[in-house]
Amino acid sequence: MIHNEMSRRRLLGLGLGLGAAATLTLAGCGGDDDSSGPAAGNGGKDYTGPKVDLKLWNGFTGGDGDIFKALVNQFNTEHQNIAVSVATYQWEDYYSKLPGAASSGNGPDVAVMHMDQLATFAARGVITELDDVAKALELSESDFAPTVWQGGLYHDKRYGIPLDMHPLGFYYNKAVMRKAGLDPDKPPTTRDEYTAALTELKKSGVQGFWVSPFQFTGGMTFYSVLHQWGGSVFDAGATRATFNSDPAVEACTWLVDIIKQGNSPANVGQDADYLAFKSGKNAFNWNGIWQINDLKKSPDTQWGVAPLPQIGSRPAAWANSHNFTIVKGRTTDANKVSAAKVFINWLSQHSLDWAKGGQVPARKSVREDAGFTALTEVNALAPELEYAAFPPAAPGLGEVMTTFYTSFNEAALGKKSPKHALDDGVAKANKQLEDNRKKYGS
């Protein structure tokens, strides 16, 4: 799990690590053509043209990859005139390969990309607008959570149709809580309750909440509580970094104080917080929804999962999302465009099966399905969809977010005070944002 998740998580962090997710993209389909050729069908609901082969790239190297391939196989069985073949790459390799492959005509017909990559690939001219697809499939914001629907926009144009959302969740070790005299069925939900629980855990000899200095998971935790305090990483237009605001400093200080107060070891190693949770050495772990299936394979760990506690004045959680989009290619094939739309629509409708891989379906009708309710642990994090802190629609934010996470790292390791670390980070981030405006022209 650690090997697969490390690769997957590196991808999540490449763009923003916000929020968490991926986007299915369709390459070799052309950009501005309206796909109304002789085999265009009825806008993605069915395809009646000659048989077409669609190449699909993705980065699902973990257990979710098996579920994804099974869905593709089911689609192929049900659509005799569309054959989708799957190629899986490490995410970082995938993102570096896609632009060149698409421009040379050797790219995929269908691929996968995270929401926080949409703006970058749109600005680079790799992907095309999808307003026509949304219209043809009669999809609107009312069919999804507003947070994920708006996340597919860049410069008021739609480049992504959401499939899912993967957020940060609150995992609690019931056995450790019980030993400390805490109710294992009532995890803390507020700052006061959280503080009180850590105090009781400390009395029992347990450092209850290990604060990781790394993006996974301390940086994402900081991102979440920063938004809970009412702060933000950037201003509304993502033109200036704002993660040294008073709310941001307070949120960072709260996490650093947990270390200073002895509720967390100092200098926690990568993944040590999660491994300690599984082995009963701590009680609380803020981690991605993707850990649910791993914990299910750990029968010795008594655990539960819930939305993040509200430490600040409002609920908020780091999250990312997978979206569908179409990639521009050298040639336009109306048949492939039509078939790709059918694939998008079908997989969106079947995202209940995809949810079993550890994803909250973006489609409202799927989340309301009794089958999703039966996925108890994944469903427990569905409420976070309404207040998920997704990335802003700005190109080239990957390096800027690395600066953000590095700033938290310096504060968590005690190299700098929270204020000093965040001030230095913002100064560097603003230079990076200025360079991005020159590079992408926005």
Automatic annotation (TrEMBL):
<dbReference type="GO" id="GO:0015768">
    <property type="term" value="P:maltose transport"/>
</dbReference>
<dbReference type="GO" id="GO:1901982">
    <property type="term" value="F:maltose binding"/>
</dbReference>
<dbReference type="Pfam" id="PF01547">
    <property type="entry name" value="SBP_bac_1"/>
</dbReference>
<comment type="similarity">
    <text>Belongs to the bacterial solute-binding protein 1 family.</text>
</comment>
<keyword id="KW-0732">Signal</keyword>
<keyword id="KW-0813">Transport</keyword>
<protein>
    <submittedName>
        <fullName>ABC transporter substrate-binding protein</fullName>
    </submittedName>
</protein>
<feature type="compositionally biased region" description="Basic and acidic residues">
    <location>
        <begin position="420"/>
        <end position="442"/>
    </location>
</feature>
<feature type="region of interest" description="Disordered">
    <location>
        <begin position="417"/>
        <end position="442"/>
    </location>
</feature>
<dbReference type="GO" id="GO:0042956">
    <property type="term" value="P:maltodextrin transmembrane transport"/>
</dbReference>
<feature type="signal peptide">
    <location>
        <begin position="1"/>
        <end position="27"/>
    </location>
</feature>
<dbReference type="InterPro" id="IPR006311">
    <property type="entry name" value="TAT_signal"/>
</dbReference>
<dbReference type="InterPro" id="IPR006059">
    <property type="entry name" value="SBP"/>
</dbReference>
<dbReference type="GO" id="GO:0055052">
    <property type="term" value="C:ATP-binding cassette (ABC) transporter complex, substrate-binding subunit-containing"/>
</dbReference>
